[in-house]
Design goal:
107 residues; alpha/beta; 2-enoyl-CoA Hydratase, Chain A, domain 1; four-stranded mixed β-sheet
Length: 107
């Protein structure tokens, strides 16, 4: 387990691919609330320090990934943080001889 909090869990498989799972268990639906965004930032920080990771898969434990966000500047910053994390992981993967930029993707 690389990270775990209320609504976000990050695990790692044998191939050094991280899976970030979004699941707000106490809510009827997944939304990007202020607390979810704070968790997302913490998960991104946990991913950025791990240079052995070769990729990132982003998923939901529910049928729908997310039904929306409480729109604010914070929601935009959280999404930008995820893009930065993906960029950092891509650089780690290339540096370690893992996946190429073309092979790296988020699902």
């Amino acid at each position: 387990m690389l990270y775990q909090d209320h609504g976000i869990t990050v695990t790692r498989n044998r191939d050094d691919i991280a899976t970030l799972t979004f699941d707000l268990k106490d809510k009827a639906i997944n939304t990007l609330s202020r607390s979810a965004i704070q968790e997302l930032r913490a998960a991104v920080k946990a991913l950025q320090v791990n240079e052995a990771l070769r990729g990132l898969r982003i998923t939901s434990a529910r049928d729908d990934f997310s039904v929306g966000a409480y729109i604010s500047g914070a929601a935009v910053l959280a999404l930008l943080s995820m893009l930065i994390a993906v960029s950092v992981l891509r650089k780690h993967a290339q540096k370690s001889g893992g996946m190429t930029a073309e092979e790296f993707s988020c699902q």
